[in-house]
Amino acid sequence: MLPESTNGTGGRSGGGLAVPMAWLCAEYLADEVLRTAALVAPGSLEYRAGLQALALTVHLTEDADDADRPDGAEGPGGRRAPVRIEALLRRTAHDRPWTSWVEERLAERLAAEGEGPDLALALTAWRRLRDTWVRAADLDGPSTGDSGAATDAPAPVDEQDQVWLPAWKLGLPLAHLSLYLC
Q1: CA geometry: angle 121, 74, 90, nearest 5 deg
Q2: Which domain of life is it from (predicted)?
Q3: Residue 107 gets which letter from DSSP?
Q4: How far is 32 from 100, CA to CA, in rounded Å?
Q5: Burial class, 82, CB count within 10 angstroms (exposed 0-12 / middle 13-18 / buried 19+)
Q6: Per residue in 18-52, pLDDT tens?
Q7: What is the value of pTM for the model shown?
Q8: Which H or E element spans position 179?
Q9: Please, what is the Cα angle at 169 between 168 and 175, to 5 degrees?
């Protein structure tokens, strides 16, 4: 499947509509993963943040994963190999610099390909994740015990202690946990 379809018009010059197939496939995969994991209700703000974070990760990992392969292996018919769950788990892990990776990959794609329909949807998703702030439990709160001293083991998350977070900080852990459960 080509990353963009022009509904059989043979290219953009025929006046056809460019369909962002790569983005739509990434979003479909993210939706299936989140629905299978069943951690939050579909349609909720948390679900939407997780969907966009995972779709963005899938979409941007396709090319990055190919470059990371030492043998340069391609999928059947010379196409890119599908994104592997392990690669997505690494990209969405808590200790990874996800936001800088997303911004670098988007800038690279913009410079290389220009703003096609897939990239336009990816940029919109990133802007929403970055610019939308939600009130949620503080997942990065201090890891202190009852004595107030820092401990090696993190304290349980206090659901009542809520802070304003960018949506990606809510969606990324949900995406990671959903991937892990699938």
Answers
A1: 60
A2: Bacteria
A3: H
A4: 26
A5: middle
A6: 889 999 999 999 999 999 999 999 999 999 999 99
A7: 0.77
A8: helix 167-181
A9: 70
